[in-house]
Amino acid sequence: MSSTPLLSVRDLRVQYGQVEALHGVTLEVFPGEVVALIGSNGAGKSTTLRAISGMIRSESGSVAFDGQDITNLRSDQIVRRGLAHIPEGRQIFGDQSVFDNLLLGGVSRNRGQSRDQAEHEIRRFPVLFERRRQKAGTLSGGEQQMLAISRGLMSGPKMLLMDEPSMGLAPLLVRQVAQTILDLHDQGVTILLVEQMASMALAVADRAYVIQNGVVRLQGSSKSVAENPEVVRLYLGGAASATA
Questions:
Q1: Phi and psi for 155 in degrees, rounded to 5?
Q2: Both 124 and 63 in a single domain?
Q3: Can you tell me the mean pLDDT for 218-227?
Q4: Which pLDDT tens digit goes with each residue over 33-86?
Q5: What is the CA radius of gyration of the chain?
Q6: What is the residue range of 2's domain?
Q7: Which of 16, 29, 151, 211 is 20 to 30 A distant from 103 in Cα terms?
């Protein structure tokens, strides 16, 4: 593993009005890693991703990606630097076809490159290839998540930010999403994964951070985090059976 992080977040602070949502979050992701960011609802997981990807502005702190300062750049500028964000809730274009959704994910490429990449991505999940002309809004939740992942890969990113990819999915589909993350890991894709389903996240990640009330409280290998008694008590007691 490289000794230089691909993503380096330092003392990141974010406010919503008068409420400070992040109180100095610091984390690193190295090339080829899957790193999980786990915590309860409202802990600051999604806010961290949104601040990294430029969806919201940070009050202070810094974000460096691939050796460049990207703090508070616009989202489109960050995508062009190779960092793609697959947002919570999938946010596909339901009235557009599956294939057109992929093309919309390739806006940072020229038209020919975008179509070529879409032809490649549509085959990542066979069910998407079968339904390429179908309106995306008619897909199941799991199929929509597959589409969101493929669309996120359309820009040819160096790194993916994945926000709650298992949200609202049945256990079988959660396992499929987990396998997709493992497959991407095997292909060398670097991923920062936000998940409330801690058992799944720790099963696929190399390292993990635990965030509580906008502060990173614990970090380490996934194994060490999964064995931490406080993590077991707070996050694994009811979640472990979901991916068993």
A1: -85, 0
A2: no
A3: 96
A4: 999 999 998 899 999 999 999 999 999 999 999 999 999 999 999 999 999 999
A5: 17
A6: 1-43+59-71
A7: 29
